[in-house]
Amino acid sequence: MELAQIFHRAGKRQSQPRRHNLREADPASPLSKWDYGKATEADFYYNITASAFSNPRHRLAQLTVFCPKVFENLRSIFGISEESYLQSILASGPFVSFQSNSKGAARVGGVFFFTRDGAYMIKTIKQEEAQTLLRILPKYHRHLKRYGRSSLLTRFCGMYQVNIEQEEDPLESFDDASLAPTKKVQTFVVMNAVFPAEASSFISERFDLKGSTVGREVSEEELRSKGSNAVLKDLDLAREVELIRSNGGKHYGLTIGASAKAALLSQLREDVKFLVDCQVMDYSLLVGIVLVDYQQKRAFREAVSTMQKQDRILEQIQAGNDQKRDSAAISAAILPFRLMAAPPIYMARKVWGLGRLMVDSIFTSPLPYYGSGSCVVNGGKLSVFHGERRGERAIYYMGLIDFLQPWTKRKVVERYLKGMIGYDTKAISSVTPEEYATRFMSYLDDNVT
């Protein structure tokens, strides 16, 4: 992965007293308005993987670090040390790629990665989004400084641009007298993830909620192909809530309890007020749901399966099967002795209790679970809730994402054209930031219980 190699090469300069490096910012000095417009650059060569029939080659790359002092200050607000940040970003090895669940992101060519330790998400952004982030950065910094412990806004930890020299293929450019290299430019942000890279192993449902209704439902094709990884939308949740309500059901929507709902909506109002002030729209609340009892049952089934395997091994030894005696004895020797010796019913109860404790500990921790640890970036005290989902115990992961779309003339025209062909202009995504915010909050008030 070129991006990972570029960062790794850039990281080797950290100990050198150069002006251009990833850690140029001095956190001790106060921020000024000039810090919000600064950018530092580093030029260097990195290796291109060569085949057995060609000589090793190098490619020129330029890394631009936007507003380094501001983002370092933000990382401090998020509780991130520079050492841990650089370790995660600059660690050797490729980033972990994954396919976005968002069709919208796919349409605009968005590419997503996790750092190798799962601590950060790296996302490429369009030029318009990059300009928006730089424009709102002073207000974003002030808002996170005030509400950092509770805000649900994405934690932007850095913004970078990579300019890579691209050589043309000599065979394709045979008639071209000049083989001047072209440039490939990518801008990307480093941020926290609402839930970690291994979410597919334990998250049962995902929702992307905007408050709009036009085209806001998951397709049958996505449900078939992705299963629990499919992203449900506004209409999917609203129809479910209406169906359960109409039949007198008590458990519907995203159930987190009255006090938690009040705290959530109160903070979202502050976050949305900030987004209105920045004149952006098209954002959404991303929700991931873990059904705790289901995870416990799965852990219990796996434990019972392990015990059954152990019983078969013991039976092989006791039967004196000469052909299987050696391998069975070796297998049994590596299993915990107390587990083998305990009565099955007693051990089943112990395993169930241990499984319940383990799952509760994992899914009620203040941060998403990734492998054997937690994500480094704290999404805020309101990013994880205990609640219920259709009567079952559940853990909710939440975050306010994708708020870099400005309200532009293009969006005005889009709204007008959709109205001309018959869409309800109050139900589509392209509405003014003020309308968008009001509708967004109203939808969540109706569907979070």
Summarize this structure as a short list of keywords or feature phrases.
Phosphatidylinositol Phosphate Kinase Iibeta, Chain: A, domain 2; Phosphatidylinositol Phosphate Kinase II Beta; alpha+beta; globular
Give the topology.
Elements: H1 2-11, E1 39-48, E2 57-66, H2 68-77, H3 82-90, E3 96-98, H4 103-107, E4 112-114, E5 121-125, H5 127-147, E6 156-166, E7 182-191, E8 205-209, H6 220-226, E9 231-232, H7 234-246, H8 258-277, E10 280-281, E11 284-291, H9 292-319, H10 322-333, H11 337-341, H12 344-363, E12 369-370, E13 373-374, E14 384-389, E15 392-401, E16 405-406, H13 409-420, H14 433-447
Parallel strand pairs: 8-9
Antiparallel strand pairs: 1-2, 2-6, 3-4, 4-5, 5-7, 6-7, 8-11, 10-16, 11-15, 12-13, 14-15
Helix pairs in contact: 8-14, 9-10, 9-12
Keywords: ATP-binding, Kinase, Nucleotide-binding, Transferase
Pfam families: PIP5K (PF01504)
Biased composition (Basic residues): 9-21
Architecture overview:
This protein is an alpha+beta fold and 449 residues long. It folds into 2 domains: 2-191, Phosphatidylinositol Phosphate Kinase II Beta (2-Layer Sandwich); 200-291 and 374-447, 2-Layer Sandwich (Phosphatidylinositol Phosphate Kinase Iibeta, Chain: A, domain 2). Helix content is 42%, strand content 20%. The chain has helices spanning 2-11, 68-77, 82-90, 103-107, 127-147, 220-226, 234-246, 258-277, 292-319, 322-333, 337-341, 344-363, 409-420, 433-447; strands at 39-48, 57-66, 96-98, 112-114, 121-125, 156-166, 182-191, 205-209, 231-232, 280-281, 284-291, 369-370, 373-374, 384-389, 392-401, 405-406. The strands form 4 sheets. A 7-stranded antiparallel beta sheet has the order 1-2-6-7-5-4-3. It has a 5-stranded mixed beta sheet with strand order 9-8-11-15-14. Strands 10-16 form a two-stranded antiparallel sheet. β14 (384-389) and β15 form a beta hairpin. α8 (258-277) packs antiparallel against α14 and α9 crosses α10. The longest helix is centred in the C-terminal third of the chain and has 28 residues, at 292-319. The chain is globular and about 70 Å long. 32% of the residues are buried. Mean pLDDT is 75; it is low at 14-25, 99-106, 170-175, 299-304, 334-342 and 350-375. This is Phosphatidylinositol-4-phosphate 5-kinase. It holds the Pfam family PIP5K. Keywords: ATP-binding, Kinase, Nucleotide-binding, Transferase.
